[in-house]
Hints:
The chain is 23% helix and 36% strand.
Amino acid sequence: MAARLTGTGLAILLALASPALAREGAPNVVEGHPTNAFMPGFPETIDGLVRESIQSKPAEGRIVANYRAPDDNRLVQMLLYALYDGDIARNIERAEAYMADGEIPVTRASVTSPAGRKMECLTTRVDDQGHTLCVAEILGRALNVQVSDVVAADADAIPDDKIAAAHDLAGRMVDSVSEAPEG
């Protein structure tokens, strides 16, 4: 069974992005980098997953992309958007509040990407989907990388190997997007 975009996953992405629209000033250019400068950082393929869709909304300062593969249970959703109140801590607080709706307690881990970038990662389960959402600050913006994978519908915890794999994949995506504006 392949991972699917659940109502929870979609709700997390949309809810986390909506306050960015109320941000003061033009969200397209943050710290001298226009939104579309990050587009090359959203790879066409990564870890056997293929980018199914990508949408840039420069006027809103955000990019959304989805990844999956036919023979893979994982679904990856990425969202680049403005920081709330100029502070990544607020983005993480909001992510944690939305992840709290899972069926098991949220676990939180401070993780470092392969290139040394800091991420806060939250993990929970909804039905038969394990969700790991990592949030990182990139040049005055937030990047959410949510990795969803099939797990037992009655699991009390997400298996450690799935969490480690999600952290690794999210870290590589954070590094890719972070390096894009610099070319």
